[in-house]
Every structure is written in C-alpha cells, then in structure tokens.
Amino acid sequence: MSKTAELILEGRSYQLPIVEGTEKERAIDISSLRGESGYITLDEGYVNTGSCRSQITFIDGEKGILRYRGIPIEELAEKCSFVEVAHLIIMNKLPNREELKRFSEMLTANELLHEDIKYHFEGFPPNAHPMAILSSMINAGSCFYPELLTEMRSQFDVQAARLLSQVRTIAAFAYRKSRGLPIIYPKPDYRYTENFLHMMFSLPYNDIEMKREAVKALDLIFLLHADHEQNCSTSTVRMVASARSNLFASAAAGVCALWGSLHGGANQVVIEMLKEIHESGDDGSRFIEDAKNKSSGRRLMGFGHRVYKNYDPRAKILKKACDDLFAKLDRSDPLLDIAKRLEEAALKDSYFIERQLYPNVDFYSGIAMRALGIPVEMFTVIFAIGRMPGWIANYKEVMEDPNARISRPRQIYMGPTLNHFVPIDQR
Ligand code: CMC
Questions:
Q1: 385 closest CA partner among 246, 264, 210, 302
Q2: Using N-to-C axis directions, what is the helix angle for 82-91 and 192-201, rounded to 10°?
Q3: In this structure, which residue's CA is closest to atom 10 in ligand 1?
Q4: Rounded CA gap, 136 and 140, in Å?
Q5: For the segment 95-130, what is each residue's pLDDT rounded down to a tens digit?
Q6: Residue 57 exposure: Cα atoms within 13 Å on the Cβ side
Q7: Is 207's pLDDT higher than 80?
Q8: Catalytic (active site) residue 129
Q9: Is the CB of 360 inside a 6 Å radius of any atom of ligand 1?
Q10: 170 DSSP β-pair partners
C-alpha cells in the first residue's frame, strides 16, 4: 500500500501521498493541498522544495556524493572525456565507440556560427563582460535557426549538438572581441576542448602549442561542471522551458542565472578574494574573521553549499588536479597556497564547523583556470560551457514529460489591502 502523511489543519485531517525516489529520498506530495484545504506551503529560497522528478543527477549532500545517471563523479573524472559525459547526460547512455564518433561528428558539423551572427559581436562595447555577451548571443541563436521554434521535438539531437558546440565558439569569440583580437575559427580536426583553447589563444599566423596537460585539465573542469541537479540556473532553464520556450532561449536564461556571485560567478570572486588577501599581506586570518562577521558583508567565497553539508566531491577532485597540473607544468601559484591555508583554517574554525561549510567547486577551479592562462572574466563562461549538457538534458526532460505543467509558484501577499484610486490633484 502506498504511504501517506497525515496533516491536521483546523481539526481536519488530510492524507498526502509520500513519493520515494530510487535512492530513497522521500517527499510529501502537496499538489492537492490548496484544492482541498485552501492552504499553500511557503518555502522562501526553495530550501525544502522538490520542484520536479528527475533521472539525470543524484546528490547526497550529507555524504558528499555526486553521480551522473548513477555513475560516481570520481569514476567519470578519472576515465571519461567531457564529450562522453555530455552524451551520458543528454542521451542517458555512455556512448559506445560508434555513438561517440557520431556525436563528435555532430558537434564538429555544428561548430561554426551562422556567418551573420559575427556582426552582432561588433555591437558590444570593449570590456563588456563575456557572460553578458554569451547569454545575448545564445539567445540570438533563436533568430538564426528559426526551425528551433517549430521543430524542436523532431530535431532535438541536432539542436542539442548545435548548442553544445556553439556555446564554445561564442565564448571564445566573446573573449577575442573583448581583447580586440581577430576571431579564430574552429578546426574540424581538433577535439572539443582543444578547439576551445585554439579559438581562445591561437593567432591567425600562429597556432598555439597544444599542451596535453592543459587540454586534460580543462576537459576535467568542463566535466565536473556538467550537471548538478536543481541549482539556480538549471531551475531557471526548466522554468523557462516549462512555458514551452525554445532551447536557446532557455539556455540563455540559464547563463544569466549562473552569472551571479552566489552561483557560478563565485569562481571569479574567489580569485579576486585570494588576490586581495595576497596583496594585503594578510595570512588569511583577517579575512576569515571578516567572513564570520555578518556586518562586514563578506563571505568566504567558494565555501558553503545549499546541498552539500560535507566536502563537495568536485572540489576534492579539483584540489588534486591543481596539484597535478602545477607539478606537470613545473609552476607554482601563491594563490593556491593561500587557498589551502584558508581551507585549513576554516575547517578548524567552529563557525564553519557548526554551519557545515566546506569548499565547493568554485574554490579551486579558478586556480586551475589561471594556470591555463584563462583570464578571470572568462571563469564563469567556462562554467557555463561545462554546464550546457545539464541544461540541455533538463530541458529535454521537461519537454518529454507528458504531465509537465508550466512552473508557476504562488505567493503570500503582504501588500496593502483594498485601497481606492485617488485622482492626481488630491494625492
Ligand atoms: N562564508 C561565511 N558564512 C557563510 C558562507 C560563507 N561562504 N556561506 C554560508 N554562510 C553562513 C551564513 O551566513 C549563514 O549563517 P547563519 O546561520 O549564522 O545565518 C549560514 O552559513 C547558512 O548560509 P545560507 O546563506 O543560509 O545558506 P544558503 O544555502 O542559502 O547559501 C551559498 C548557499 C552557496 C549561496 C552560500 O554558502 C554562499 O554564499 N557561499 C559563498 C558563495 C559561493 O561560493 N557560491 C558557490 C556555490 S557552489 C557552485 C554553484 O552553485 O554555482
């Protein structure tokens, strides 16, 4: 017999169904509550609200577990490429050789932007933030591929490959434009991540020397960001999709949500914070004291997470990847030493212990990107490229759900009660 929860309201009993996931997470289904009782639930910031049923990503925040389609992130990080993981997330299957070849060929076939899109880059001022350019140009895709508006279902694979491939081209073009550099086109014989580095750093007369370690590190960064269930940007993508907006418009909205400093924008702010500590000569302790004091308005960026109450498994992998990368490139970075010192001090501090605040994915990713020569304003763009498979898969889930309804939360109105119009000369 299916389980129910009993809710007693004003002496009346309501039976609410319990929904159990495949990993035994449980939820109380309150969808009939307002119809039956007149009450809604209130959960500001959605701290305790499940917004959908999803088959893509599982997180156990207490244990620090992250799995894409059931496979632990540690196994994928060690054994897979970003493109294989994108196939896993979007197509719900680790590709065999033939499938991977077909998927890679689709990415290559769709890597070039419509030639006229290029002119739109001219309209942005110098120093425009590349996240603003990225969201605008992804949305512009809806103008250049009008079939997006009508043939989404029959052409989903092509549209997905186009978005996944072109986000990287747009990102690199945005960077070149912001630096006044000539645009470099993708090369069909380069793989996904190599091509991005080529478009970012080659010159018309001189291709960059592709370092294996650099390609591997960036591919890992993309892979670790590929999905993360119902975070702010993915929920945004799902919400826009629920209105039956097209894939490019939904993904552009995701980019806007990701940009914020409490979300993907944190990777840029972490580096700015570490630089500030370095330049001020602070050993980190002053900053930690500030971060504990709410009135300072500061936080230890790259620390804390809504879901993880344990070490973010992505941060663990990235910390090790930073050490490996610096060893292989025979380099060092004082910011890595500061980050490690901050982590050590915070993990011993009762403020962080009591609130279960640990390093999150953004704490070490910027240090790795700095080592690859990626400028700080591109960090959140890199996050967006990595997150694209997750946004696409979540979009698909919404579109393929025969029971999907438009996302439309309610509110508790706290404004003035009935109040009548006053003509302008009597106000
Ligand atoms: N430094 C200092 N105090 C913190 C921090 C931090 N980084 N994060 C949370 N707290 C405190 C917060 O002040 C609150 O204290 P109290 O209980 O005394 O009021 C308590 O911990 C709970 O914090 P919250 O803001 O209610 O938690 P949340 O789940 O709403 O926010 C968060 C999660 C990630 C926005 C927050 O931890 C934060 O601002 N971290 C810094 C920004 C950051 O690194 N963001 C990247 C998140 S991971 C990748 C991604 O999603 O993009």
A1: 264
A2: 120
A3: 304
A4: 6
A5: 999 999 999 999 999 999 988 888 888 888 888 899
A6: 24
A7: yes
A8: no
A9: yes
A10: none
| Unique residue bearing structure tokens 């909205």 | 253
Q: Can you say whether residue 366 is alpha, beta or left, with left for phi > 0 and alpha for psi between -120 and 50 degrees?
A: alpha
Looking at residue 345, its amino acid is: A
Decide whether any atom of ligand 1 lies within 6 Å of the 163 Cβ: no
**Beta bridge pairs of residue 408:** none
What gap in Å lies between CA 221 and CA 361, rounded to an integer?
A: 10
pLDDT tens across 391-401, in order? 999 999 999 99
Residue 383's Cα: distance from chain center in Å?
6
Which pLDDT score, from 0 to 100, does residue 102 have?
A: 96
pLDDT at residue number 244: 93
151: pLDDT strictly greater than 80? no
Looking at 219, 227, 312, 362, which residue is catalytic?
362
330 Ramachandran zone, left/alpha/beta (phi>0; psi -120 to 50):
left
Residue whose structure tokens are 């990225």: 134
Residue 342: closest CA among 279, 296, 280, 273: 273
- 305 counts as catalytic: yes
pLDDT band at residue 177 under the 50/70/90 scheme: confident
Q: What value does the mean pLDDT take over residues 216-240?
A: 98
Map out the domains of the chain with their CATH numbers. 4-65 (2.20.28), 78-257+379-400 (1.10.580.10), 266-371 (1.10.230.10)
| 15-33: pLDDT as tens digits | 999 999 999 999 999 999 9
DSSP 3-state assignment of 94? coil
Q: Are 56 and 390 in contact (CB under 8 A)?
A: yes
Q: Name which of 163, 159, 100 is nearest 134 in CA terms.
A: 163
Place of tokens 């917004």: 51
pLDDT at res. 281: 86
Cβ–Cβ < 8 Å for 212, 188: no
Residue 64 — pLDDT band, cuts 50, 70, 90? very high
